Amino acid sequence: MSDEGFSSADLEELASRQISRRGMLALVGAGGAAAAFGLTAGRARGAVPTSLLEQLAGTVTFGSNYSDPVPKAAIAAVMANFTKKSGTKVKVNTVDHNTFQEQINSYLQGKPDDVFTWFAGYRMQFFAQKGLATPIDDVWKALTPQMPPAMKAASTGLDGHQYFVPIYNYPWAVFYRKSIFSKNGYTVPKTWDQFIALAKKMKTDGITPIAFTDKDGWPAMGTFDILNMRINGYQFHKNLMAGIESWNTPKVKAVFNQWKELLPYYSAGALGLTWQEGAQQVLNKQAGMYLLGSFVAQQFTKPEDVADLDFFPYPSINPKWGQDSLDAPIDGFMISKKPKNLAGAKALMTYLGSAAAANTYLKNDPSDVGANKHTSTAHYNALQKKSAKLIASAKHIAQYMDRDTRPDFASTVMIPSLQQFLNSPDDVNSLVSSIQKQKVAIFGK
Amino acid sequence: MRKVAAETAVAGRADGARPRHRAVRLSLRDRVTVGVMVGVPLLVVAGLIWLPTALSIGLSFTNWDGIGALGHIPSTWVGGLNYHQIATIYPPFWPALRHNLYWLAFLTLVATPFGMFLAYLLDKDLRGTRIYQSVFFLPVVLSLAIVGFIWQLIYSPTQGLLNNLFEDPQHNHLIDFLGNPKINLWAILVAVGWRHAGYIMVLYLAGLKSVDPSLREAAAIDGASEWHAFRTVVFPAMKPINIVVAVVTVIEALRAFDIVYIINNGRNGLELLSVLVTDNIIGEASRVGYGSAIAVILLTVSLVPISIFLWTRFRAEEASA
Questions:
Q1: A437 and B89 in contact by Cβ < 8 A?
Q2: Of A86, A240, A331, B96, which cross-links A245 as Cys (Cβ 3.0–4.6 Å)?
Q3: Domains delineated in chain A
């Protein structure tokens, strides 16, 4: 790509949104990225219909929840590259991550941006079903050969049309420090019995076996998800989340009863701790293992600590399922109901799904794994490489409870219910029947 | 008796007003002015208070999810279903209602009297009284969200001050002030009281300064004890301030929200009605009807102290007229 299409004014406009020096560096880096990723970018460009690129004009507006400095700089770099390739300007409107999520209803019904950041799975399907998003099957014609089938499935609405383009995802797994394991002669547990035996051993060694924190309410969902998928399988989990299965059944009770076995090995005061405090326990070698998303690495700031961090997939419980599924939430993008610049928005979506976009993003924010099959792994660190392998080897990928079910059910029913369980774990029967009653009230079935 | 007094009061007032009333004929311009001066506030009150209240009550009988045209709302009518579900199958509701009442009781019985007690002591011109006043008043200038943040640094199980001073969080010996639903409400109420007592102290101190010192001297000469003099002489003389203090206390208890939201989003032992309203309506949940029903319940709870306040106030006006 020649530099004629490169408008430094566009870059400056984007750069002016960046306050941090780091963001500036990212943008400067993005300029050089074209050369570095020439090969992959070429492949991606081949997949984009050139006609689509040519008819582009004007500006696309982009509503972003990438509000933290590192992801914000990374997305700015992606947009700068897109502008460079297509000549279309992108006007980025960044909103605080949590605020963006909380205001999504009114945002999408008001004057939303052409393209906005969102999550795959039920949370995408919900807004697609409400008619608040534009189907993008034509974009997926170009993307299908480049994306794993699981990514396409996660981008498809209930009506069979695609509404979403993924850029990256990240796995939930059990994180630990290699040095603790080698020093004490621990081995990575493959089965539940090995897992419990290891936890027991850690406890006698004076280590909190499992860091667990749930003051924020959502981290406990990860444990429910994985136990349910290990015990009852992915399909049951998916149906349960979609409101098809009942909660007051032996299958769900089995999940909570299995969970009970872990409680003696958890951090004390778990309901008063944030996930960051849990990560600190692992960092300080006070706790041995921690089930969390790979973003746990954000708390490991020293390179030697990052190098010491490793993870293993959750141990198998029911041999029928083994370790075949995991939570690996996908982040990506959607087009709003009536975009001002539909052609530009679709071109941007096509670009965002390309390996070039993933490469640029991950170069600036190296804690995730690219969604595109052709994402370059040359710049991955050890954890990213392992994450990519884990996700690629999984048969089923769930999106995490608060993305796999209705948002009202997740936030007003499941968060209090899981905390209730952690407070009084012996009351499983009344807990599941309470959840079931509320589930019927919300899902209407 | 009261009715008679009221009638004479009205008659007396009317008698006094009638001659003047007859003398003044409002010009068109005056009438327009009066109309605007009364009409604009009326519109504001009706539009910003009464209309939303009526709409909330209406919405509380629907299961509208906040998406779609407004004309579509009537088709989501579910009658009293939300109220029934809230009372029967919504586990956080009864704890939330209880916590609001605990909050009210704590402020009324502990924090407010403590603030009054501080004010009474500081009124005695102790040495360094200004320093004490500043210290106790300092938390009042902080928002409750900041108060919540500060106290988290004190209460946090592993990183907090209390546990690191008195327990051993490194070895899992700790008191879970924030996560244990049996104690976290009380821990938070201490933080709330820390701020509330200072607020009441300032209000009450201003009131005490305005009490005529000769009243107290007279009581002392008559041999009344300190407590007796306060109860029978000073306290009744401060009636206007007492009413303000009572109203402030009730408002603080019913609007409680920010501190628990900062700490754990108002869950797990820290549920409050205001939080449940927010959880259901704002955010992705968008159960507008359900949340409105909880808001109507909160309104009903608020009406109790409001009615008592208005009733005593009107009675006082009648009596003084």
A1: yes
A2: A240
A3: 3-169+331-391 (3.40.190.10), 172-327+406-443 (3.40.190.10)
Chain B residues with CB-CB distance to A270 below 8 A:
179
Q: DSSP character for B173? A: B
Where is A59: in which H helix or E strand? strand A59-64
pLDDT averages per 10-residue partition of chain A, 445 residues: 38 38 38 36 42 60 90 92 91 89 86 94 89 95 91 91 95 97 96 97 96 94 97 96 95 98 95 93 96 90 92 97 94 95 94 94 87 89 92 90 90 94 95 96 88
Record the tokens describing residue B103, joined without a space.
Answer: 């909050």
* Residue listed under structure tokens 């956080």: B92
Q: Which residue in B has a C-alpha nearest to residue A126's C-alpha?
A: B284
- For A52, the token pair is 């689509």
Contact A105/B66, CB-based, under 8 Å? yes
The domain made up of B90-211+239-286 is a member of CATH 1.10.3720.10: yes
What are the structure tokens assigned to B218, written together? 């007279």
* A119 and A104 Cβ atoms separated by less than 8 Å: no
Residue of A nearest to B277 (CA): A412
Whole-prediction pTM: 0.81
Cα–Cα dist B258/B13, whole Å: 47
The answer to whether B267 contacts A411, with C-beta atoms less than 8 Å apart, is no
B interface with A, Cβ–Cβ < 8 A, is: 66-68, 85, 88-92, 155-159, 169-181, 184, 263-265, 267-268, 271, 279-280, 282-287
Look at residues A107, A214, A242, A332 and name the one whose alpha carbon lies nearest to residue B286.
A107
Which ipTM score applies to this complex?
A: 0.81
